[in-house]
Fold:
Amino acid sequence: MTAPSDHESLRLWLRLFTCTTLIARELGSALKREFGSSLPRFDLLAQLDRAPKGLRMGELSERILTTGGNVTWLVRALESDGYVSRRVSADDKRATVVRLTPTGRRHFAAMARSHEGWIIAMFSALPSADRRAMHTRLGVVKEQFRPTRSSP
Amino acid sequence: MTAPSDHESLRLWLRLFTCTTLIARELGSALKREFGSSLPRFDLLAQLDRAPKGLRMGELSERILTTGGNVTWLVRALESDGYVSRRVSADDKRATVVRLTPTGRRHFAAMARSHEGWIIAMFSALPSADRRAMHTRLGVVKEQFRPTRSSP
DNA sequence: TTGATTTACTTGATATTTGAAGTAATTGGC
DNA sequence: GCCAATTACTTCAAATATCAAGTAAATCAA
Structure:
């Protein structure tokens, strides 16, 4: 039995936030140390790696959960590193399609290997069944954020 | 049975990161809209609220998981808003002790009420038992980051 | 069509965060 | 006590992020 003043959700959120921050810091500093990169750059490249035909700026900004201005900035930086290319969409001349260059694909592949290894290590204390259970439950939380079809 | 290429930990991390980012964005924009504040400011004030005698800059930076430079910046901003005060520690003239002002305490109390309401709403789709289970499992992950007594 | 509206981005001003380097105070060993 | 190492902060530059305009292209209704 749990008293209502246990602040159960609040405590869960605090721990969620702490764990995510700890992991993100670790990943970020490892990516910087080993590859001169960062988590935001890695995340953007990861999206492009899954989309062989490339993605529009808007799609990128939705997927990495950041603003359009920030995507413009990130893409410009990655472009000047030679990891991504951009071109005006044939369909819609307002849109820009971004894709990985061959160099970018190799660069990402190398990082992804290490990246997964670090993550596996960080979650290794958690039994596999627990990892799956947590994944499922987080799925429920995530659903809360899907825009509903009810508002204007 | 799960194949090794399921990238179980990786998927868990991606979902953890997504959920945390979604929640943090929501909280941040609500704090800004309703109180002209932000999540980092709220978190810092929350630490001080629990520490009636105040905290040193270094303690703050450990607790909110951010760098010293950032704490200097945050405290300066909160001080100029009148929410915190700082003074040189009597024990150690290098150290600065930060504490809430009466205004800061009221300001935090008002925010904390709304803040918990928003969080409860965001986790409401998850049964209480699931919230507790997740909290426990995240505790295991968090432990991984405790500095060990073995390295120099 | 054409003009109003919406959409896809970019820009520019700020805000925030990090990491490295600098300053002052404290501590530990001699 | 005295100097070298350590500690607690601050500062500064660079990396990221947000938000509010601004621009051009597409869409849609009259």
In short: Strands of chain A lie at 55-56, 84-88, 96-100.
